[in-house]
Structures are given as structure tokens and as C-alpha cells.
Write a structure and sequence with these properties.
With 383 residues, the chain is mainly β. It is built from one helix and 26 strands. The termini are far apart.
Length: 383
């Protein structure tokens, strides 16, 4: 006979193992079977997907999409909890997705959820359907021509499904790219205008798609396109110009280029290049706002720049107006002046020579020029 343990009576070990197995069976029966996707129990409590039997009902595949498309998918979930569920948030993991929610009641009435994705407080009555629509803006996908998995997390007060994560896969295809990505024209002199060059190429080497030409130009801009080759690859040189005489201030627009399909035949999707410009006077002060410390001997510096290429100006007089002007002195020095004292750059120096007020003060620096169309340039100062 086998030797019995001196510390356990006969059958104790077998009885303990049997009890443990029985306890596990009872727990399994109480919990019910779980799906691989983390869906609610077989009792169908909580928010239940419309196609709950699918292996991944929370997942949608958009496949390959062209840059510029706006796409969306809608999920439907039924409240099987036996009480109202409150949706608290729809939290996207990137800026390319825009989630929205709505509730469809059993009688067919529809309640649109708030636009805000946080603190929604959207109630879903028992038996009602929650619709979650997630849009995806392909222009905001950071890395075209690469697979992307976007996620949006739903939070609610359900006891069974407090968290649900929706997943969307997409491969955004971009045929062309521009370097730089936008035509940015900063400090465009009003009388002369300004231009910028961009190089447009296919995104992947060996692409057969081509640029057919300029379809249209929007905004106060002019564009020219030419083609060259670097090795075996085509490069389209796009020159965008802000025309002289445009109104002062910011301007936006775009250049739309016509393309062919990927096989090189037939019209393809238009390729757009955004254009941004700021038109200013022909001469500007940098910085645009001067700051003066409120202490004896404090100095503020600025530079007057003639933006028109080759232009030179003469500063006839520099003066200060406004608070504390009597305690300040301004001096201007030309960089490499010509025989007439004119220069494309002037260094401006404001120095505190007297006692400055204790309270905050402000005024204007005014430079009087010898230019008939631009008699003066001014900028605010503060201390």
C-alpha cells in the first residue's frame, strides 16, 4: 500500500482538488463565455454591436483611398443592459478622425448627440440603438502611402461595456508631393510683389503619373509651371508669385494642377498646392513691436529693412511720440550707405536717457523717409 502523508487524513488531497475544480466550474458558469474581441457576455448585456458575431465588430477597413477624400463609417450598438446608459466621451487618438454619436429610439425617433467629444452626456435608453459615426479626413493623415490604424475610444457608465475602442484602417495614397509642401510668401513688398519656387515630383520612384498643367489659380497670385528631369525622374518646377499692388494684409489661395492617372493615361485627381502670403509696406521695422525695460540706460534695438530687392532708402528723421518719449533718445545708423547716404538696412537704437515712469507706458517710433509713396514707417513701443 502507498504510504499516507502523516499530516493529511486519507482522501484530503483528492477532495481539495475536486473542490477547486468545482469552484472554477461554478465561476465559469457564472461569468459565461467570453469572445476574443472582448464583447459583452452571452447574456448580451451592455452596448452590443449590430454584428456582434463578427470576429472584430469594432474594426472597419477603408482600404486604399486617395489623398483628399473624406470618408466615414457608422457603427450601431444596441443597449441590452436593462437600464439607460450614458455615453460620456468619444476620444480620438489623432486629429484626422471626427467622431459623432446619435441615438435611435425603438419608435424610430432620432436624437443627435452634441458636437463635443468630451463630456457628451448622451443617454441611450434600454433597447435604443447608439450610432457612432467616425469620419476620417485623408488630408490630415501625417504619413501618406503608409498603413494607418486610427482609434476612437468610447467611455460610458455601463457596468459591462464601460470602454469600447473603434478601429479604422486606411492606406492614403498620394501620387505627387511638393517641396516645400506649401507656397509661403512672407513680407511681400506691396509695390514689387514676391515669388517662391516649389518642386513637384511623384511620391514614389517609377510612378507613371504625370502633371498635365495648371488648371486654375485662386487668390491674388500668378503661377508658372515648367518640366525638367533629374536622372530618370520628372520634376515639375512651380513658381508662384504674389502680384504687385495687392492689398496689405494676409492672403490665401491655391494652385490646382491637373494630373494623369497612375498608368499615365487619362485625367487623374487634381493636385493642390496651398498658397499663403502677407503683403506689407515696402519697408518694415523688425521687430514689429519694441519693448523697453523700465530701468536707467535701457536700450531697445530694431532694424529698418527695404524689402524690394536692390532698393535703398534715406531716413530723414527719427522721432518718438507718446508716453515717456522725453526720457528716450532714438538714433539711426545706415549699413553700407551709398554716396547719398541711402541704404537697404538701417539699425535703430532707442536708449533711456532720463527717468522712466514707474507705471507702464507706450508710444510710437516714427521714421520719416525720402520715399514719396512711403513717407514714413512706424512701430509701437512699450515699457
Amino acid at each position: 500500500m502507498p504510504e499516507r502523508s502523516p499530516t493529511h487524513p486519507p482522501g484530503v488531497a483528492r477532495t481539495s482538488a475536486h473542490a477547486a475544480s468545482l469552484l472554477l466550474a461554478l465561476l465559469a458558469a457564472a461569468c459565461g463565455p467570453q469572445s476574443d474581441a472582448g464583447l459583452p457576455r452571452a447574456t448580451r448585456e451592455g452596448l452590443v454591436f449590430e454584428h456582434a458575431a463578427d470576429p472584430r465588430p469594432y474594426f472597419h477597413d477603408f482600404g486604399d483611398r486617395l489623398l483628399g477624400e473624406t470618408i466615414a463609417h457608422t457603427w450601431r450598438l444596441t443597449n441590452r443592459e436593462g437600464r439607460a446608459i450614458v455615453v460620456q466621451d468619444l476620444l480620438p487618438d489623432c486629429g484626422c478622425t471626427q467622431p459623432r454619436a446619435a441615438v435611435v429610439l425603438p419608435d424610430g425617433a432620432r436624437i443627435e448627440g452634441p458636437f463635443e467629444t468630451r463630456g457628451m452626456g448622451l443617454g441611450v435608453p434600454p433597447g435604443a440603438t447608439l450610432e457612432v459615426r467616425i469620419g476620417l479626413d485623408t488630408t490630415r493623415v501625417e504619413r501618406p502611402n503608409q498603413h494607418k490604424l486610427a482609434q476612437v475610444r468610447l467611455r460610458c457608465d455601463s457596468d459591462v461595456t464601460p470602454y469600447i475602442t473603434f478601429e479604422l484602417h486606411v492606406l492614403v495614397k498620394r501620387t505627387f508631393r511638393a517641396v516645400p509642401a506649401e507656397a509661403v510668401l512672407a513680407d511681400v513688398p506691396q509695390s514689387a510683389g514676391k515669388s517662391v519656387r516649389l518642386d513637384v515630383t511623384t511620391e514614389l520612384a517609377g510612378e507613371r503619373a504625370r502633371i498635365r498643367g495648371i488648371e486654375r489659380v485662386e487668390g491674388p497670385f500668378h503661377a508658372e509651371l515648367s518640366e525638367t528631369a533629374v536622372g530618370s525622374e520628372s520634376v515639375w518646377i512651380l513658381v508662384v508669385r504674389a502680384e504687385p499692388g495687392s492689398h496689405l494684409g494676409p492672403h490665401t489661395g491655391k494652385v490646382v494642377l491637373g494630373t494623369t492617372r497612375g498608368d499615365g493615361a487619362g485625367p487623374g485627381q487634381d493636385f493642390e498646392v496651398a498658397v499663403r502670403a502677407v503683403v506689407v509696406e515696402d519697408c518694415v521695422l523688425e521687430p514689429r513691436v519694441l519693448s523697453i525695460r523700465r530701468e536707467p540706460g535701457a536700450v531697445a534695438r530694431a532694424t529698418l529693412v527695404a524689402l524690394v530687392p536692390g532698393a535703398r532708402v534715406l531716413v530723414r528723421r527719427a522721432r518718438l511720440e507718446g508716453g515717456a518719449a522725453e526720457a528716450l533718445r532714438v538714433d539711426c545708423q545706415a549699413e553700407e550707405p551709398d554716396e547719398h547716404g541711402r541704404s537697404g538696412r538701417w539699425n535703430v537704437r532707442i536708449e533711456a536717457v532720463g527717468e522712466l515712469p514707474r507705471e507702464a507706458f507706450s508710444g510710437r517710433l516714427i521714421l520719416e523717409l525720402d520715399e514719396p509713396h512711403l513717407p514714413q514707417v512706424d512701430a509701437p513701443f512699450a515699457g
